[in-house]
Amino acid sequence: MNARSSTSIFLAGAALAALLLALLAGLCHLLLQPGLALYAPVLVRPADWFFALLIATDVGAYVLLCLFFLAPVPARAGQRIQPFLRTYARLLFFLLRHVVPGKKRQKRLAHAYIDYLNQLVLRRHLRVRPEKILILTPHCLQWDQCPHKITRDIHNCRQCGRCPVGAILALSQAAGAHFAVATGGTLARQIVRDLRPKAIVAIACERDLISGMEDVMPLPVLGLLNRRPNGPCFNTDVDLHALRVLLETLTGERYERT
Ligand code: SF4
């Protein structure tokens, strides 16, 4: 499934979550109304306005969420509205995660959410200097028998070809971008704090990618899911072509196949 149709899945799910949010607001209003009328009648009208505004914001934000994906958005307007849209999308995804049944559907939803977040970044048509880009990957990409400590210094990798780390290092060197491998969220955050990149290309599983992308908001992050042919967190792999395309999209340059 391509990123566009995957994003449509997120928007369809988001419609459900937005409706749920509006219903919840309406229900709260209905429940509060009799009590307010009895004990604080002066608050009845402000409460009416508050809940009406809440529902209108919900509907308006959902329309913006769709418009941002479907229609061309001027770069400056896009930049201003991004933090709000990302926060709203995050809220809808949080709700959806609790109502969508089944692991398979939840996984598809997570993919769709990641694709939507990627689209938010891509539609800004950013141009970032390579030295301001960080490629961040999890430790499980490294071959489990490799004796080299790449989390301390990625240049310890001998590029032997036993795992994708060597190829990613070659690509990052060709591009002039930073590349770091993190053993967990704490180290990843520390790397981001130290390097202060302007954009990140992150590779991880659904859970880590989503929490990482949300953590570093409003920093633009393009997420790429890892492949797990040996199960989770063990000798994982990544689509190097997709990684190169993301890097090229951010820098506007072309890199030879490494
Ligand atoms: S490519 Fe690098 S990290 Fe991977 S096994 Fe070889 S030396 Fe180790």
TrEMBL record:
The chain crosses the membrane at residues 49-71. Keywords: Membrane, Transmembrane, Transmembrane helix. InterPro entries: DUF116 (IPR002829). It comes from the Bacteria. PANTHER family: NUCLEOTIDE-BINDING PROTEIN-RELATED, POLYPRENYL SYNTHETASE. This is DUF116 domain-containing protein.
